[in-house]
Amino acid sequence: MPPQQQFGAFTASELYCPKCGKAQPVRERLLLVLPSGELHEYLCARCATSLGQREVTGPPLTAAVAHPSRAARKRKLLHT
Ligand SMILES: [Zn+2]
Fold it and tell me: How does pLDDT run across 2-11, given as a tens digit for each residue?
């Protein structure tokens, strides 16, 4: 296996950085751990400006997204 496989978890490799004035490689770091998943932050690899956030959800939520209408109906029933 090539060593590049280590970086396979990165979903965004470059984002526009307003401070640098161009797209820059990003670094991802764990910002928060939520009940529904994890909040990751993208930082400019050059100046460390925050370029965006991404919520990484666990397997249960991913399954719910596959059937949005069904999940919404189930949620409504649970709350009433
Ligand atoms: Zn930058």
Answer: 544 444 455 5
3-class SS of residue 71: helix
Judge whether 35 and 22 are in contact, CB under 8 Å: no
Residues comprising the chain, all counted: 80
Contact 57, 36 (CB under 8 A): yes
C-alpha 49 to ligand 1 mean position (Å): 6
pLDDT digits (tens, 9 = 90+) for 4-47: 444 445 556 899 999 999 999 999 999 999 888 899 999 999 99
Per-domain residue ranges for the chain? 11-79
Q: Determine the distance separating the centroid of ligand 1 and the alpha carbon of 32, expressed in angstroms.
A: 22
Question: How much distance in Å is there from the Cα of 10 to the middle of ligand 1?
Answer: 18
